[in-house]
Every structure is written in C-alpha cells, then in structure tokens.
Amino acid sequence: MIKYFFLTGVHCVELSQSGSTVVAPGQSTTLTCRVSGYSLTDWSYCTHWIRHPAGKALEWIGRICAGGGTDNNNKLKSRFQISRDTSSSTVSLRGQNLQTEDTAVYYCARQYHSETHQQEPCTKTLYLVNLSTVHQNL
C-alpha cells in the first residue's frame, strides 16, 4: 500500500487541500488544490503542479491556464493529468499507476504571467506526499 500525507500552508492567495488517502502501488489517486484570492478563468494566471523528491531536484509536472489548456512534462504526461473545476475553484492532479518513486513533496502554485496587472507578493501551498510500501504479516 502507498500512504499519502498532506501538509498545507496559506498566504495572501490561498491554495489549500485537506485529507489523506492510502493507495496500493500501481493504483491511481487525485490531489485537489482549492484556490481563493484569484479566479481560475483570469487570463493573468496559470496554476502549476511541481514535485520535489527527497534528495533530488524540483520536477515540474505541468500547468493549467485560464482557457483550460494544459502543458505537461513529457516524461510524466502519460501518468499525470491536470484538470480544473471553475465552479468549485479547484485544480486537480490525477496520478495513475503510482510507484514508490513518485514519493515527493508536491506543490500547487499560482503563476502570474500577465503584463497588464501588477503582481502582488504571494506564495503557494505545500503538499507533502509520502508514498511508502506497507508490508503485512500473513
């Protein structure tokens, strides 16, 4: 089985998630990031998913922007998909066929990319996702 643990932090723009889940290796799960303080349809912003495996470099997973279009890391796009629900202000990351190598700290982050507005200082929410194999005595 794979265990997920989540930690969240909140700053001027809030991206938050609660709860935890247990998934067996090879299974799927979805992380959700609920945003407030900006709109998922505002052309000034994109929302990204990034992960940081222990002892390794940050790894960009992908992003979704105002029009709903996504860009993904070619190495991960067959197993990770990003979607959004504007009615609930959530951005989701679905991971499929998850393995222990997917253990990482997962970040949901807002990117400001418009030149028409002044960017205010904001940061993102931190997600700690710990995937570990659990053995049961039979």
Automatic annotation (TrEMBL):
GO annotation terms (biological process): adaptive immune response
PROSITE patterns for the chain: IG_LIKE
Record has Protease as a keyword: no
InterPro entries listed in its UniProt record: Ig-like_dom, Ig-like_dom_sf, Ig-like_fold, Ig_sub, Ig_V-set, IgHV
Keyword Cell membrane among record annotations: no
Residues of the Ig-like domain: 23-108
A cellular component annotation (GO) from this entry: immunoglobulin complex
Superkingdom classification of source: Eukaryota
Protein name per its UniProtKB record: Ig-like domain-containing protein
